[in-house]
């Protein structure tokens, strides 16, 4: 990995709090510290919301994005043009979050 470059880690979640907690704990404990953790929850339930917020209090590298609707549910309602606009909005949101830093996959 290139030294001192920020690593952006996207963590999607939908009703998987059990694994989300383990994932966040693991990411926070990594030896490479120049990271940001972007947690994206679709239709988060109260437990998920509390869990992510508790980790945000412990570590300021966590960014939390809540989607009020689950994407596949929204997909059923959209025509192809609306779908493309929605995907562009998500792409733009992601670009703002990483602030022109490198994203390694």
Main sheet record: 3 strands, parallel
User: What string gives the helices and strands in order?
Assistant: EHEHEHH
Query: What is the terminal separation in angstroms?
Result: 11 Å
In total, the number of strands is: 3
The low-confidence runs, each spanning 5 or more residues with pLDDT under 50, are none
Strand order of the main beta sheet, please?
1-2-3
C-alpha-based Rg, rounded? 15 Å
* Outline: flat
Query: What proportion of the residues is helical, as a percent range?
Result: 40-55%
The share of residues in extended strands comes to: 15-25%
Quick summary:
The chain has helices at residues 17-28, 46-58, 71-77, 80-98; strands spanning 7-13, 35-42, 62-67. It has 105 residues and is α/β, with parallel strands linked by helices.
Features:
4 helices; alpha/beta; 105 residues; 3-stranded parallel beta sheet; single chain
Could you explain how this protein is built, in words?
With 105 residues, the protein is α/β, with parallel strands linked by helices. It contains four helices and three strands. It has helices spanning 17-28, 46-58, 71-77, 80-98, and strands spanning 7-13, 35-42, 62-67. It has a three-stranded parallel sheet, covered by helices on one side. α1 (17-28) runs parallel beside α2 (46-58). The mean pLDDT is 77.
């Amino acid at each position: 990995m290139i030294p001192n470059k920020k690593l952006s880690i996207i963590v999607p979640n939908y009703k998987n709090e059990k694994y989300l907690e383990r994932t966040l704990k693991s990411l926070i404990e990594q030896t490479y510290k120049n990271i940001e953790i972007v947690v994206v929850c679709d239709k988060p339930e109260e437990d998920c919301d509390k869990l992510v917020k508790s980790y945000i209090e412990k570590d300021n590298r966590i960014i939390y994005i809540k989607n009020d609707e689950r994407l596949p549910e929204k997909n059923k309602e959209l025509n192809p043009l609306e779908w493309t606009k929605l995907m562009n909005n998500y792409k733009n949101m992601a670009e703002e979050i990483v602030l022109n830093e490198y994203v390694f996959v």
